[in-house]
Amino acid sequence: MTSNPENAERLRSASLRVTRPRIAVMDAVNDYPHADTDTIFGAVRAVLPHVSRQAVYDVLDALTAAQLVRRIQPAGHVALYESRVGDNHHHVVCRGCGVIADADCAVGEAPCLTASDSHGFVLDEAEVIYWGLCPGCASTSRI
């Protein structure tokens, strides 16, 4: 796992204490974009063998609340985490193999889309998931 020296400063900027589990989780999320908690836990355990699963869950919750990581959950998937935050990007999901990739916002600024009726809400984000087949699945599909 690659350690990002900027993670400690990012934690401090979010008023969070710098701890080894927090650094390890941030590194894991950065190294494994769109990773589930099991993948993140395994990566953290590789560098911190005694960390508990609950500690990793707690760190993910704290990092998500501080907007240092983003939690997404496409339909039919478990919660996934990524380190790309603050840019209102979207995702493409393969219906065949489940691979997920980032898709930049078509407009370039949040909320990226205009709702037909905001119902009085002040909109600041749009979450879009595009579904289809990745190149590998499309080439083997009979559709």
Write the layout of secondary structure elements.
Blueprint: H1 6-13, H2 20-31, E1 35-36, H3 37-47, H4 53-65, E2 70-72, E3 80-82, E4 90-94, E5 100-103, E6 129-132, H5 135-140
Parallel strand pairs: 4-6
Antiparallel strand pairs: 1-3, 2-3, 4-5
Helix pairs in contact: 2-3, 2-4
Number of strands: 6
Sheet with the most strands: spatial strand order: 1-3-2
Report the mean per-residue pLDDT as an integer. 90
Low-confidence stretches: none
Estimated radius of gyration: 17 Å
Quaternary arrangement of the chains shown?
single chain
User: What share of the residues lie within helices?
Assistant: 25-40%
How many alpha or pi helices? 5
Helix and strand run: HHEHHEEEEEH
Strand proportion: 5-15%
Ends apart, CA distance between termini: 39 Å
Structural class: alpha+beta
Describe the 3D structure.
With 143 residues, the chain is α+β, with helices and mostly antiparallel strands. Helices cover 35% and strands 15% of the residues. It has 5 helices and 6 strands. It has a 3-stranded antiparallel beta sheet. A 3-stranded mixed beta sheet has the order 5-4-6, with no helix packed on it. A hairpin with a 7-residue loop joins strand 2 and strand 3. The model has no long low-confidence stretch (mean pLDDT 90).
Short overview:
The protein is α+β, with helices and mostly antiparallel strands and 143 residues long. The protein has helices at 6-13, 20-31, 37-47, 53-65, 135-140, and strands at 35-36, 70-72, 80-82, 90-94, 100-103, 129-132. Helix 2 packs across helix 3 and helix 2 (20-31) packs across helix 4.
